[in-house]
Amino acid sequence: MDRILVLYLFWMNILTFIVFWLDKWKAVHGKWRIRVSVLLGLSFFGGALGGLCAMYLFRHKTQKVCFKIGLPVMLIAQIILLIYIKAAVIV
C-alpha cells in the first residue's frame, strides 16, 4: 500500500509540475492556456507540492489568491492525510 501511494504521489507531483510549466510556456508565447480548474484539480488530487514548486520556480500564478493560499493549504491537508494513513496502517 505504501509503495503504491508513494508512486502515485511522485507521478502526480511530476505531472502537476510539468502542467504548470506548460501553462507558463503557453502564457509567454500567447498560446491557448490550461484551465485554472485543471491546475487546481491536479494540485488537489496529490500534486500540491509539484504545483507549489512550479508556481514559485516559474513565477507563475503567484499573484492569484486561489493559488497563493490554496496550494499551501492543499499541501498541508495532504501531509496531514498521509500522516493519518500511515498511523492507521501501523495500528
Q: Compute the average pLDDT.
A: 94
Please give the count of helices.
4
Broad structural category: mainly alpha
Estimate the global geometry from the Cα principal axes: elongated
Order of helix and strand elements from N to C terminus: HHHH
The proportion of strand residues reads: under 5%
- C-alpha Rg, in Å? 14 Å
Give the termini separation.
15 Å
Low-confidence stretches: none
Helix content: over 70%
Main sheet, how many strands, which sense, barrel?
none
Beta-strand segment tally: 0
Describe the model.
- The two termini are 15 Å apart.
- α1 packs across α2 (36-57) and α2 (36-57) crosses α4 (70-90).
- This protein has helices at residues 2-28, 36-57, 65-68, 70-90.
- The mean pLDDT is 94.
- The chain is elongated, with a radius of gyration of 14 Å.
- It is mainly α.
- It contains four helices and no strands.
Write a brief caption for the model.
The protein has helices at 2-28, 36-57, 65-68, 70-90.
Topology:
Elements: H1 2-28, H2 36-57, H3 65-68, H4 70-90
Helix pairs in contact: 1-2, 2-4
Fill in the keyword field for this structure:
mainly alpha; 4 helices; elongated
